[in-house]
Amino acid sequence: MIGLIIRRIFQLILLLLGISFLVFMSMHVAPGDPATIIGGPTASSSDLEAIRESMGLDRPVLIQYVDYLGGILQGDFGYSFQTGQSVTEAILTRFPNTIKLSIASMVVAIIIGIVAGIIAAIKQNSWIDISSTTFSLAGVSIPNFWLGTMLILVFGVQLQWLPVGGLNAPIYTIEGIKELILPAITLGTASAALIARMSRSSMLEVIKSDYIRTAKAKGVKRKSVIWVHALRNAMIPVVTVIGINFGALLGGTIITEQVFAINGIGRLMIDAIASRDFPVVQGTVLLVAAIFVIVNLIVDIIYAIIDPRITYN
């Protein structure tokens, strides 16, 4: 396990290095000029040259990239072209909202998905199974922005049960929980549908295994067979889906944060891309990539905990 962690950390470094290079080059090759955006339509050529020189944009791209890597090694991700704020400070200010939304969405997805999938497998071909399958198809098909808008109209505007924008209250308060409900459901529905489908298929496969039939033949109670013996082995592919979807949720927060006016990493990234704010875009993309790789490492560790037969030698 220690060897796995060391290898993954090494892979993480190489992956982030590659991502940083691709994002850096993509931002510089894309049409548009940050100096023009900052200077505005009235800026003269000399003004634009002065802006480029002050931001270091007049140097060769590869030199800029090497300087950028040197700053990262010192913990300096640069400063925003638009606000002059440290990229690290901007990310730390908004990241708590994004991570709260992602975790809440994942909790919703896990609870709904696993429960619905297991019950559907136990009640195969019943109305419960059909309803779960229908929910899965609908959850995958419905766009986040449409679902979020409908939830706002129904529960925020018509019924006025829940707030519809921002994450301003602390998470441990009732108001903070209420603020999370609608965006968490919006973001977590598609993941819940995928987890439900995977839980159902995995549970059906495990239930038909020889050791499950043996446990039943020995007189083990049905609840113990399902929730102790079958569930643990059925969770291995489900854990994979959960890990991948958690990484995807961090990227998916972009749309949800826009719909619910949440001041998170997603909105920061969108604003930075629109204004060609290179340092902010690079910093946010590297953060999301790092979390995605770390989550996959955690998934591998959970594999070994769930099933001791799995080794990484």
TrEMBL record:
It holds the Pfam family BPD_transp_1. InterPro entries: BPD_transp_1_N (IPR045621), MetI-like (IPR000515), MetI-like_sf (IPR035906), Opp2B (IPR050045). It is a multi-pass membrane protein. GO terms for cellular component: plasma membrane. Keywords: Cell membrane, Ion transport, Membrane, Nickel, Nickel transport, Transmembrane, Transmembrane helix, Transport. Its main location: membrane. GO terms for molecular function: nickel cation transmembrane transporter activity. It comes from the Bacteria. Residues 95-303 form the ABC transmembrane type-1 domain. It is found in: Cell membrane. The chain crosses the membrane at residues 12-30, 101-122, 134-160, 180-198, 231-255, 285-306. Belongs to the binding-protein-dependent transport system permease family. OppBC subfamily. The complex is composed of two ATP-binding proteins (NikD and NikE), two transmembrane proteins (NikB and NikC) and a solute-binding protein (NikA). This is Nickel import system permease protein NikB. The lineage of its organism: Bacteria, Bacillati, Bacillota, Bacilli, Bacillales.
